[in-house]
Amino acid sequence: MTHERETYNIEIAGIHRELALFEVKPGLRIAILNILGDTELVEACAKALAEKLNAVSYDVFVTAEAKSIPLAHALSVVTGKPYVILRKSYKPYMGDALRSETLSITTGEPQSLFLDEKDKNLINGKNIIIVDDVISTGSTLQGMRMIMEKAGANIAAEVAILTEGERAKWSDIISLGHIPLFTD
């Protein structure tokens, strides 16, 4: 038995997608953009975001594990700039890693972000672009900002495929679109 889920239709970087709506807490549903495995959308979004970054001076892309990794990689390919991934769990090979705490709307659980020791020099004193797939509450964004401050990086811009929720809250984010929250 399959369950027909309500969807939200959107066009992103010239590509149509139907985003499934999922309840994240009683009375609140969000449209889920899952770019993992969606090469067509990831590549189109990377090209569109890279164009929007033409006037920005930057050295490195930084994103959090895991759903936005393909976007950071595609942006790196399009622009020739390196990227760094902030991990959600510490591994011994990460050495003297920097850490921050976040609370994700999609998991509802506190999460940690870690900057691997090997990546500190790559971003220290550099202009970085924070990359995310969807910015909703801003908690992951805030966690990335905290680590960038600890690492001595300058945030040149913040980009996302989509922003979600209160549009005015995300006026400084370079994005390709906006989706509402769905309340019952």
At the first level of CATH, the class is Alpha Beta
Termini gap: 25 Å
Helix amount: 10-25%
Task: Kindly provide the radius of gyration, computed on alpha-carbon positions and rounded to a whole number of angstroms.
Answer: 16 Å
Query: What is the helix tally?
Result: 4
Q: Can you tell me the number of structural domains?
A: 1
How many β-strand stretches? 12
Average pLDDT number: 90
- Stretches where pLDDT is under 50 for at least 5 consecutive residues are none
SSE succession: EEEHEHEEEHEHEEEE
What does this structure look like?
- The chain has 184 residues and is an alpha/beta fold.
- The chain has a single domain (36-177), classed as Rossmann fold (3-Layer(aba) Sandwich).
- The chain is 24% helix and 37% strand.
- It contains four helices and twelve strands, in the order E-E-E-H-E-H-E-E-E-H-E-H-E-E-E-E.
- Strands 4, 5, 8, 9, 10 and 11 form a six-stranded parallel beta sheet that branches. A four-stranded antiparallel beta sheet has the order 1-2-3-12. Strands 6-7 form a two-stranded antiparallel sheet.
- A hairpin with a 2-residue loop joins strand 1 (7-12) and strand 2.
- The chain is globular and about 50 Å long.
- 33% of the residues are buried.
- The model has no long low-confidence stretch (mean pLDDT 90).
